[in-house]
Design a protein that fits this description.
There is one protein chain. Helices cover 53% and strands 6% of the residues. The chain has 211 residues and is mostly helical. The chain has a three-stranded parallel β-sheet. The longest helix is centred in the last third of the chain and has 47 residues.
């Protein structure tokens, strides 16, 4: 069973889920990407240390918590998905060469792999601190770790100011085009409403003598 939203599960929610698995030895696989891949790194629900705390307490033994480290590259979400899938295959003991994800639609909740990108310079220090905290926790936790902690939780790629300016210009251009499109659409709808009102009034005038 796999569901990205499970990383946000609270302790009572996890306990309720595991009640249905009584009698089974439960193992949990946590796929980890660099904090720079998240839209809001360090938020309480998805901070890796808290995720490991909650699920580690649920499975009781650290070796039953498997950590798959996935390297993310800006503009390469498909490669990151394949890397995560291969890691899950290694943990569960099945080959993934013939079980590719090319035709599998990506869940809207699996945003971290899709949004991996360079971080603004002013945010880089915060991301580095979060990454160091995560790496220390993984290395000291006794978990079953797959992948290179240093590669995944190393220094984040920092965006070039010129590239950021170009991105902002493109975003502004796209926003202005969308506003223009919506304005035209609004004008068209207003004309249709006015035309409908005129027809309604004309029909009412014709029906009044009959009434």
């Amino acid at each position: 069973m796999s569901q990205p939203l499970l990383c946000r599960a609270t302790r009572p929610e996890i306990a309720l889920l595991l009640d249905g698995l009584a009698g089974f030895e439960v193992h949990v696989v946590v796929t980890v990407t660099s904090p720079h891949a998240w839209t809001a790194p360090g938020e309480p629900e998805t901070d890796l240390c808290q995720v490991l705390d909650r699920w580690g307490a649920a499975v009781r033994k650290p070796e039953r918590l498997h950590v798959v480290l996935v390297e993310t590259e800006p503009g390469q979400p498909a490669r990151a998905r394949q890397s995560a899938w291969r890691g899950v295959g290694r943990v569960a003991g099945f080959g993934t060469a013939s079980l590719r994800l090319d035709a599998v639609p990506q869940s809207a909740t699996a945003r971290p792999l899709a949004l991996a990108r360079a971080v603004p310079p002013e945010r880089a220090a915060v991301v580095r601190t979060i990454a160091r905290t995560w790496a220390d926790r993984i290395e000291a936790g006794g978990y079953d770790v797959h992948g290179d902690v240093a590669a995944v939780l190393g220094d984040p790629p920092v965006a070039d100011p010129a590239d950021r300016a170009a991105d902002l210009d493109r975003a502004l251009h796209d926003a202005l085009r969308e506003i223009e499109r919506l304005a035209r659409r609004n004008d068209c709808l207003e004309q249709q409403v006015a035309q409908t009102d005129r027809r309604r009034r004309g029909l009412r005038r014709r029906l009044t003598p009959v009434a």
